[in-house]
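ok so i was messing around last nite and threw this chain in just to see what happens. nothing serious, just curious
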Amino acid sequence: MTDDTRALLRSLPSLAGTAPSWDADRLPDDPVSLFLDWLDGARRAGVPEPHAMTLSTVDESGVPDARVLVLKDVDDRGWAFASTRRSAKGRQLEAAPQAALTFWWQPLVRSIRVRGRVGEASGEESLADLHARSAAAQHGIDPDDWTLWRVVPTRVEFWQGSADLRHLRIVYTREGGT
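result:
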């Protein structure tokens, strides 16, 4: 069975999307601008749910945990997502306020990885986010429990895949406050 599975996996196409052209020599000074440009490109290319991302945290034993969420906002304060404080992710972020986000846009052979410290938004921002959800999505949620978090990145990597495996990585790192 293992040989069949291995053969099947090796036979599946990978990096089969179409990489858009872009000038890696003309990069913006901050990763938010490049992210918004790539997000717009993904949206225009018809990438389904381009705001979907994998949030990775660690549990109390240091074991990685990951789940898919949607990006709520991004600006110079960080990449925002929301959930209840009592959820597994909420408890994990309380104990270890570090996280990684991963976006994968297969049709464009693009990925973005964001990692850094996680901080809570204000209570007003969290409440506004909760109220922006549909009535059905708000049902049963205690407004005091709903939390908007932001990953304040220490590192943001933009990865452009290539069929010849000569992938391009652009990495932004935080130095001091910038």
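not much to say yet. Helices lie at 2-11, 31-44, 88-95, 123-132, 135-138.
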